[in-house]
Each structure stands twice: as C-alpha cells, then as structure tokens.
Automatic annotation (TrEMBL):
Protein name as it appears in the record: SDR family NAD(P)-dependent oxidoreductase
Classification via Gene3D superfamilies: NAD(P)-binding Rossmann-like Domain (3.40.50.720)
Source organism of this protein record: Dongia sedimenti
Domain of life (superkingdom): Bacteria
InterPro entries referenced in this protein's UniProt entry, alphabetically: NAD(P)-bd_dom_sf (IPR036291), Sc_DH/Rdtase_CS (IPR020904), SDR_fam (IPR002347)
PANTHER family, A to Z: OXIDOREDUCTASE, SHORT-CHAIN DEHYDROGENASE/REDUCTASE FAMILY (AFU_ORTHOLOGUE AFUA_5G02870), SHORT-CHAIN DEHYDROGENASE_REDUCTASE FAMILY PROTEIN
Sorted UniProt keywords: Oxidoreductase
Family according to the record: Belongs to the short-chain dehydrogenases/reductases (SDR) family.
SUPFAM superfamilies linked: NAD(P)-binding Rossmann-fold domains
C-alpha cells in the first residue's frame, strides 16, 4: 500500500462485515488508526481489529445506531479513543429481503430504513463535526447506493433514505467548505456482500441464479467486490481528493450512466 491516509484517525460504521469491513482493512493498510463501528457483530469487529496493522492501535465502538443516545455515546467514545477524528465513513446499512410497493410499505420498514441509513448519518455527523473541524484535513464519506439515483422497484424506503444521504452530504459540504471539511458519497451498484447474497437468495432460482440476474443488470456484466468500494473511499478520504466535495460517485459497472 501507499500510506494514502497515514496518520489519519478514522471512524467506520458498519465495520464488522461487507463493505464496511473492506473499508476498515483498506484504511488500516493505508496507515490510518480506525474506530470500527459495530452493533450486533462486535465480536467479529474485535477479531478484525486484532488482524489489522497496529498503526498505534484500533478500537471497536459498539452502538445501536437507531438509538440517538447510543449515537451520542459512540461519537464521544470515538473521539476520546482516537484522540480526535479526521475521517468519518457511514457504511452501516441494511437492505430489504422482501419488496413492497409504496402503499404496501409498512411504517416499521420505513422507520427502520430511514433511521439507520439517513438519521444515523445526520446525528453522527452532528456529533462528530466539532471534533473533525479540529482534525487533519477532515473528510466524510457516506456509502449510498445507485438506488439514491434511480428508483429500484419495491424499495421505496431504501431508495429515499439513500437519496437523502446524498443531499445530506451536499449540505455538509456547503456548510463547512470554508473550514476545510469535505463530504462525498459513493453510490455502489450491486456488491458481493452477505446482504446481497441474502437478497439474491429470495430471487427466482435462489442465490446463484439471483446473483447472475443482478450481475446481468450491469453493463460490465458482473457485480463488484467490497475492495473496489473501499479503494474509492480511501481516495475520497485522502488529501489526493482535496478538491472534491459534495460529489456523488457511482461505482456501478455502468448501471446508471451507460
């Protein structure tokens, strides 16, 4: 690796698996100290922390990000544990395994999607920004989705949450540009993660056929692996991207624009 973010202090939510875990690994390999956010999978996050290059020490921060009191405590623990904060990545998320059109979407599903994907991003940002403004060229990276750019049938709550995440990043970018804090969004297409495989398992033909169907949606003819998202996150968080803010970067094999 190149030491792209060497010496930086980063907090990655949803860091115990999937895209979040890949980002944690990449950040540590690129020289950052990382606070790994986890909820139900703290044991996996702790094992991940032990496997990383030390870089002065990593930590695991356990919190239910649908609980605003736990969000506030997590923010305090991250800043105290790392001695400040330079990079915040909101990667925590869930997807639906059952589709529902708008009028059949339950209040519980709507609240669950908005709480974790959008509300948590806002309240964590609100809590972390004061510390980040004291950091070293601070940057935020939100893991969105192509579903925030186009409407995926039957996923209204997820679509709206990811679209809101994009505008949250733009608002943060606008509010703090003069103070040097950048905020950007990565909008992945379909990525090979446990969430994706769970989703594919409910498609006609089961997981294997479902993955083939999802791959065929992308002009490049495949789905991505988590490290492809992690590499972009490291770039956007680094000083190499110092003139990029308020941007949504699709990493989708041409799904949206081709």
């Amino acid at each position: 690796m190149t030491g792209l973010i060497s010496g930086k202090r980063a907090y990655v939510t949803g860091g115990s698996s999937g895209i979040g875990a890949a980002i944690v690994k990449t950040f540590a390999e690129e020289g950052a100290r990382v606070a790994i956010g986890a909820s139900a999978h703290a044991r996996e996050a702790e094992a991940l922390a032990r496997s990383l290059p030390a870089n002065g020490g990593h930590l695991v921060v356990k919190a239910d990000l649908t609980d605003r009191r736990q969000i506030a405590k997590a923010a305090e623990d991250v800043v105290a544990g790392l001695g400040g904060l330079d990079i915040f990545v909101h990667s925590a998320g869930i997807d639906v395994t059952q589709t529902a059109v708008t009028h059949e979407t339950s209040e519980a599903l709507w609240d669950k999607m908005l709480d974790l994907h959008l509300n948590a991003a806002f309240f964590l940002s609100k809590a972390l920004i004061p510390a980040m403004l004291k950091g070293n060229k601070p940057a935020m990276v939100f893991i969105g989705s192509v579903c925030g750019l186009v409407a995926w049938e039957g996923d209204v709550a997820y679509n709206v949450a990811k679209a809101g995440l994009q505008h949250l990043a733009r608002c943060i970018a606008s509010d703090y540009a003069k103070q040097g804090l950048r905020a950007n969004v990565i909008a992945p297409g379909v990525i090979d993660t446990p969430l994706t495989r769970n989703y594919a398992s409910g498609m006609p033909g089961g997981e294997a056929e479902g993955l083939k169907t999802l791959a065929a949606m992308h002009p490049l003819g495949r789905i991505a692996v988590p490290t492809e998202i992690a590499s972009a996150a490291a770039f956007l968080a680094s000083d190499k991207a110092s003139f990029i803010t308020g941007t949504v970067l699709p990493i989708d094999g041409g799904l949206v624009n081709v």
